[in-house]
Write a structure and sequence with these properties.
714 residues; alpha+beta; Gamma-B Crystallin, domain 1; TIM Barrel; 6-stranded mixed sheet; 36 strands
C-alpha cells in the first residue's frame, strides 16, 4: 500500500491537539512540531478543556480559526491561504469554565472592580477632572495614513467616514501598506502651527489619534512595531505636538482604538481578510446580539493574543512615554465588558491621574466605569446627559480628512452648540481632520478662527462654568459661574427688552460681556419670578450675544419655562419630561427627536408659564418611521384638549406639522402630548412643539402675502 494513503496522528502539546495528515508528510511534520509548515491537513481534533488557534501564516499571522473542546473540523478554510490548508502556526491554551460563560464573565469582572481598584479610582475622580471641567472646549484630531487620499480609493469616493476607508473598500493589509503606509510623508506637518491655531481657537485640550481602527500607531511603538517608523516620516509627530501644546498650556491626550483593529488577526473588525467577529459581515453575531455573547469561546483568542499583546501594552506605553492628560476610547461593544474593565484596571494601575472617557467601559447597569460619558458622534442638539459629559461634533460629516465632503457647518453652529453644551454641564470636543500632507483644511481654519474670535470676547461665559439652574429661555441658553449667570442670547430682542424668566434673586448688576467697561444695564423686576433687562436694540453679536447677570446670594430659580409673548417659542423634545420607555434620538442632524412611542400610557410634558392670557399658533413637528404608522394624539394645555390625527410621512427623514390655535391663560400649565390611538408599531417621532404668538403669526402671513403681491418678477 502506498504510504500516501495512510494516516497518522501527530502529537502536539501533550495530546491537546491531534492533527491528521498524509503519511508522506509525517516525518517532516515531526521535525517542525508546532509549525507543521507545508503540511496538508485532513482533520483537526482538540482535547476537551483546551483551545487551539490555527493561523494561516508563520509567527501567528494571517487568518486564524478557533477550535475548542472535542470538536473535529474537516476541510478548514482560512482566508488568503492555499486551497489545501497549510498551517503556519498554532497556539494552544487551557480553558476554564468561567471563560465560556459571557454573563458570568462580566459579573466576575465587575465584582473584581467593585471589591478592588474602582473605589480608589472614584476617590480621585474630582482631582482628575478638575482641569477638564474648567476647559469646556477641546480639539479632536483624526489624522493617520488614511488621510493621504481624503477618503478616495483608486479614484472612487468612499461612503461614510474617511478614516474608515480600509473597511469601506475592504483593502487588504499588504495593499494598505503599499498604498498608504509606504507613501505617508506629511512634509507640511508643523506641530507649532497646529498648536498655535488650536490656541487661537480658544481650545484648552487636544485629543489626537494615536491608533485608529486601521491598527497603525502614529508614534514609534516598541510594544507593537506596526507604526510611524514604517513611513517616510522618521519623526514622532505626536511627541512634537505634545511639546508644542505644553508650551501653550494646552492639555494633551490620545484617541486609542482599543476594541476595533483591522490589522491584528485576533482583534474584532476585519472580516474581509480574517474570519473575525465584529465586522460588517456580522460573523458569529445573531440579530441584535454581539459576538462575545453569542460565541464566548472566541473571547480567549481576542483577550490573550490581541488585548494582552497589543492593546494593553500600547496603552501603557502611551502612558509611560507621553504622560497624557486624557485617554479617549471608542467602540467598546466590539469587546466584552470584562475586557474593557480589565483595560481600565491596567490604566489605573499605571496612572490614577489620567482622565478616561466613558466609551472604554460601560454596561451591566453602569453608564461608565471611567470618568465621563460621551454623546453620539456629530451631534447638533444635546439629549439629556447627567453628570460629566462631552459632545464630539466635527466640522463636516467625516472625522478624517475627506476631499469630497463639503458639508462644513458655519462657525455659528459650533458657537451655539458650545453654549448649549456648557449650559448643560458638558464639554465640546470639536473635531477636524488634517490632510495627509500635514496641512489643516482651510475651511477648518476659518471655522476655528471665528470661534476663537467669539471666545476672545465671551470666553468667561464658557470656561469654568457649571450647569445652569435656569430653564431654557425663549431667546437662548444660560451658563453659571458662582453667583453670576451668563445669558447666551441667540435671538436678540429688537425692542431692547430682554425678559429673564425664573430668577428669584435680586440682580446686583447686569452688563454686556463684550463691553470691556462693564457699563451697567438697567434691570427691573417684572414679578416674583421674572426680570426685564434693557439692552441695546442692536445685537452686539449676530450669533450669540452674552449678557452677564450678577445676583445677590446663592442663585435660586423657578423651574417652569416662561413663554415669550412677543417671539417664537420652541419646545424641544430633548427638554421635555418623557415617560419611561420613550427613547431619545442621537442628536445628529435630523435626529433630534424622541421615539419608541408605543404605549397609550406614555406622554411628553413641558412645564410652561405665561404672565398674561396669550393666543398662540401651536405647531407640532413630527415624522413617522413606517407608512403604516399613524394614530391620534391629544394636546392638552391646562383645561384645553385638542385631538389631532398623525398622518404617515414618506419616510423617517421627512417631517410634518400639525398646526392649531390655542389660548394659554396666565399662570403655570403642563403642556402634554399623549396618544389617543396608535396604529402601527409606534405613534411618531416628535421633534418639537412651536408656540408663536398669534399676532406675530398673523404678521408673518401678512408679510408673505405682501411679498407675493409685490414680487412679480420680470
Amino acid at each position: 500500500m502506498n504510504d500516501d494513503y495512510e494516516t497518522a496522528a501527530v502529537l502536539i502539546n501533550v495530546l491537546d491537539i491531534k492533527i491528521k495528515l498524509s503519511i508522506g508528510e509525517y516525518a517532516q511534520s515531526r521535525l517542525r512540531a508546532l509549525g507543521l509548515k507545508d503540511s496538508p491537513i485532513s482533520a483537526i481534533e482538540v482535547a476537551n478543556g483546551f483551545q487551539a488557534v490555527i493561523y494561516a501564516q508563520d509567527h501567528y499571522a494571517g487568518d486564524s480559526s478557533v477550535l475548542s473542546g472535542m470538536i473535529s473540523k474537516e476541510d478548514i478554510e482560512l482566508k488568503n491561504s492555499d486551497p489545501v490548508l497549510k498551517i503556519g502556526s498554532v497556539r494552544v491554551r487551557r480553558l476554564t469554565p468561567s471563560v465560556l460563560e459571557a454573563e458570568e464573565r462580566d459579573k466576575q469582572a465587575i465584582k473584581h472592580a467593585l471589591d478592588g481598584w474602582w473605589p480608589q479610582s472614584l476617590a480621585n475622580m474630582e482631582n482628575r477632572l478638575a482641569w477638564w471641567r474648567e476647559a469646556r472646549f477641546g480639539c479632536f484630531i483624526h489624522w493617520g495614513v488614511y488621510s493621504l487620499t481624503g477618503g478616495r480609493w483608486k479614484g472612487e469616493k468612499s461612503q461614510g467616514y474617511a478614516e474608515h476607508l480600509m473597511r469601506a473598500k475592504k483593502i487588504g493589509l499588504k495593499e494598505y501598506k503599499e498604498a498608504f503606509i509606504d507613501k505617508f510623508n506629511p512634509e507640511l506637518f508643523d506641530a507649532e502651527e497646529w498648536a498655535s491655531l488650536i490656541q487661537a481657537a480658544g481650545m484648552k485640550y487636544v485629543v489626537i489619534t494615536a491608533k485608529h481602527h486601521d491598527g497603525f500607531a502614529m508614534y514609534p511603538s516598541d510594544a507593537y512595531p506596526f507604526d510611524i517608523r514604517m513611513t517616510r516620516l522618521q519623526r514622532d509627530p505626536l511627541l512634537e505636538l505634545k511639546e508644542a501644546c505644553a508650551r501653550r498650556g494646552i492639555k494633551y491626550g490620545f484617541y486609542y482604538s482599543h476594541a476595533f483593529d483591522w490589522e491584528h488577526p485576533d482583534a474584532p473588525g476585519n472580516d474581509w481578510e480574517y474570519t473575525n467577529p465584529g465586522g460588517d459581515l456580522r460573523l458569529y453575531e445573531g440579530e441584535g446580539k454581539l459576538w462575545h455573547s453569542e460565541h464566548p469561546e472566541l473571547v480567549p483568542r481576542t483577550a490573550d493574543y490581541y488585548v494582552d499583546r497589543k492593546a494593553i501594552p500600547q496603552i501603557l506605553e502611551l502612558i509611560h512615554k507621553y504622560e497624557p492628560d486624557l485617554l479617549w476610547f471608542d467602540t467598546p461593544h466590539k469587546l466584552p465588558l470584562s475586557e474593557n474593565v480589565r483595560i481600565l484596571e491596567a490604566i489605573r494601575e499605571a496612572s490614577d491621574d489620567v482622565v478616561v472617557n466613558g466609551r472604554l467601559a460601560a454596561g451591566r447597569g453602569f453608564p461608565t466605569f471611567a470618568d465621563y460619558v460621551n454623546t453620539a458622534d456629530r451631534v447638533l442638539e444635546i439629549f439629556p446627559c447627567e453628570g460629566d459629559w462631552e459632545s464630539i461634533p466635527t466640522t463636516n460629516e467625516s472625522y478624517g480628512y475627506s476631499i469630497d465632503d463639503n458639508s462644513h457647518k458655519p462657525a455659528s453652529a459650533f458657537i451655539q452648540l458650545l453654549a448649549k453644551s456648557a449650559a448643560r454641564g458638558g464639554n465640546m470636543l470639536m473635531n477636524l481632520g488634517p490632510k495627509g500632507d500635514g496641512e489643516i483644511d482651510e475651511r477648518d481654519v476659518t471655522i476655528l478662527r471665528e470661534i476663537g474670535a467669539w471666545l476672545e470676547r465671551n470666553g468667561e461665559s464658557i470656561y469654568g462654568t457649571i450647569r445652569t439652574p435656569l430653564s431654557v429661555q425663549a431667546w437662548g441658553e444660560s451658563t453659571q459661574k458662582e453667583n453670576t449667570l451668563y445669558l447666551h442670547v441667540f435671538e436678540w430682542p429688537a425692542d431692547g427688552e430682554l425678559v429673564l424668566g425664573g430668577l428669584l434673586n435680586p440682580i446686583r448688576k447686569a452688563w454686556l460681556l463684550a463691553d470691556k467697561e462693564h457699563k451697567p444695564l438697567e434691570a427691573k423686576r417684572l414679578n416674583y419670578y421674572d426680570w426685564l433687562i434693557h439692552v441695546p436694540c442692536q445685537a452686539p453679536d449676530p450669533v450669540d450675544s452674552v449678557v452677564a447677570v450678577e445676583v445677590d446670594g446663592t442663585i435660586r430659580v423657578h423651574q417652569s419655562r416662561l413663554l415669550s409673548e412677543k417671539s417664537i417659542n420652541i419646545l424641544r423634545s430633548f427638554d421635555a419630561e418623557v415617560s419611561q420607555g420613550i427613547r431619545y434620538g442621537d442628536g445628529k442632524k435630523g435626529n433630534d427627536y424622541i421615539c419608541d412611542w408605543t404605549s397609550m400610557n406614555q406622554r411628553v410634558t413641558w412645564k410652561i408659564r405665561t404672565n398674561q392670557l396669550v393666543k398662540y399658533r401651536l405647531g407640532l413637528k413630527y415624522s413617522t418611521v413606517d407608512g403604516i404608522d399613524t394614530g391620534v394624539v391629544r394636546i392638552a394645555i391646562g383645561n384645553q384638549s385638542i385631538e389631532e390625527r398623525i398622518h404617515p410621512t414618506q419616510n423617517a427623514k421627512e417631517t410634518a406639522i400639525i398646526n392649531v390655535e390655542v389660548v394659554i391663560s396666565a399662570g403655570e400649565h403642563d403642556l402634554s402630548i399623549m396618544p389617543v390611538q396608535i396604529d402601527g408599531k409606534e405613534l411618531m417621532r416628535l421633534y418639537e412643539v412651536t408656540l408663536i404668538p398669534l399676532a406675530l403669526y398673523n404678521k408673518f402671513e401678512e408679510d408673505i402675502e405682501e411679498l407675493d403681491r409685490t414680487d412679480v418678477g420680470d
